[in-house]
Design goal:
Layout (H helix, E strand, L loop, with lengths): L15 H17 L8 E3 L2 E3 L5 E4 L12 H14 L15 H13 L2 E5 L2 H13 L10 E5 L4 H4 L2 H5 L4 E4 L4 H10 L3 E6 L10 H11 L2 E5 L13 H6 L7 E6 L9 E5 L5 H9 L11 H14 L2 H20 L11 E5 L5 H10 L2 E2 L1 E3 L10 E5 L6 H13 L15
Parallel strand pairs: 3-12, 5-6, 5-7, 7-8, 8-9
Antiparallel strand pairs: 1-2, 2-3, 4-10, 9-10, 11-14, 13-14
Helix pairs in contact: 2-11, 3-11, 7-8, 12-14
Length: 417
């Protein structure tokens, strides 16, 4: 009989047995029914599969369709020619070309903050959060790290490394009372939360600012889903509404969703210039030879210029009109919000069949289930975009109603057939 030790997991911060044991069955069912693992060519907003089936993708995060904008594509190509390199693979702390510095200066002016770029938001959060936990990014105090229960997985994955530097807890979604209790009990608290949730809704930034002002609480926002889609010059929900934009508020936001390019911006307010060197040297992936390549930078520079023009206002207006049209046809918990994501409720038993029915009609809406959402709250995720046509939205909503979605109650009280 072997005397080798077996390992018992603590499951303090994650539980892969549960994550995979339950979630993988849904993924396998989705793939077996043709609504996951799809491959197709994209042209003029329509995907075409090898068997000839065509569909419009209603689950893509490019809310303003800037990822296919000719100026953004041309910007990517021009940057490759201009800087004569795709990715000079060495940490920027050693040697770098001017490509990232030019982008960070442009984004800094656009967003009104010191900007540090990263290859992805996950990489940025992985590197920054442990520095906050140790007090090196902050006022020197090790804060209690409070992660929102619904915080994106790219944030939650940092819990173990943060726990090596400080105490880590998880709170209910937007639980302000709990946060205030923690602020009364601990010298400092850092709340980690999405500024705009991937399944709809915004963080209570004004109420959080009250706690920041009263208790010196630090808030770490991932505002990826509202950047570009919301606010003047596309500055996002947090920067549009948070009263405290100083060293107590740190925001990361991807440039690959509404911004239409690639990479991520870290937005820092009130920090000295030396903070940039600290982050570049010690924030994990932000200091490795993993950074935005020249094509992504060129695309982001072009997108930033669009953000400075009236065209951005026009695109945001089209997006708002499409959101309003969808809400006039279907009833969801997000109805009436400016947020571009809608979760169409289905049961765990019917969500994959519903997705298959919608896909057969020429639209893709992704089925979401545990662990993406809590068990028993499955649904079809729909992303509204500026470039979608009225006909496409009306046809999609009609198919969704046939698949079990709730039609919106008409203003005149008549029954929708």
């Amino acid at each position: 009989m072997s005397d080798r030790k077996t390992i018992t997991p603590t499951h303090r911060y994650r539980n892969n047995d549960k994550l995979i044991g339950i979630g993988n069955a849904f993924w396998n069912m989705s793939e077996a029914n043709g609504v996951a693992g799809i491959v197709g060519d994209l042209a003029d907003g329509t995907f075409t599969m090898a068997d000839g089936h065509q569909f419009v993708n209603f689950t893509v995060c490019s809310y303003l369709d800037l990822d296919t904008h000719p100026k953004v594509i041309d910007g990517a190509v021009a940057a490759l020619r201009r800087f004569n390199v795709l990715d000079h693979c060495i940490p920027r702390t050693r040697v770098q070309t001017p490509v990232l510095l030019e982008l960070e200066e442009s984004l800094g002016e656009l967003f009104g903050a010191m900007v540090i770029s990263a290859v992805s938001t996950a990489a940025a959060s992985t590197g920054l959060l442990p520095l906050i936990a140790s007090g090196h990014l902050g006022d020197g105090t090790r804060p209690l790290m409070v992660f929102d229960k619904n915080a994106h997985v790219s944030l939650a994955n940092a819990k173990p490394s943060c726990a090596d530097e400080s105490e880590v807890v998880t709170c209910k979604h937007h639980d302000l009372d709990y946060l205030e209790d923690m602020c009364r009990s601990y010298e400092r608290v850092c709340y980690v939360v999405d500024g705009a949730d991937s399944l709809g809704g915004y963080a209570p930034v004004k109420e959080l600012a009250d706690l920041q002002d009263k208790y010196n609480m630090l808030v770490f926002y991932d505002d990826s889903h509202s950047l570009s889609a919301y606010g003047q010059r596309g500055i996002g929900y947090v920067r549009s509404h948070a009263p405290l934009l100083d060293e107590r508020t740190i925001t990361v936001a991807t440039l690959s969703k509404g911004f239409g390019a690639g990479g991520t911006a870290v937005l820092l307010d009130g920090y000295p210039h030396e903070t940039r060197r600290l982050v570049e040297r010690f924030a994990g992936p932000l200091g490795y030879s993993q950074k935005m390549n020249a094509a992504a930078v060129g695309a982001a520079l072009a997108s930033a210029e669009i953000h400075r023009t009236e065209e951005l206002d026009q695109l945001q207006g089209r997006l708002r009109a499409n959101i309003a049209l969808f809400d006039s046809l279907l009833d969801t918990e997000q109805s009436g919000e400016s947020y571009p994501i809608r979760l169409v409720p289905m049961s765990d038993d019917t969500v994959v069949d519903a997705a298959q029915q919608v896909f057969a009609a020429g639209f893709y809406t992704s089925p979401v289930f545990f662990p993406i959402v809590a068990r028993g709250t499955a649904g079809l995720r729909v992303m509204l975009r500026a470039g979608q046509t009225e006909e496409q939205i009306r046809r999609l909503c009609a198919v969704l109603v046939q698949a079990g979605a709730r039609p919106a109650a008409p203003l005149d009280g008549t029954v929708v057939r």
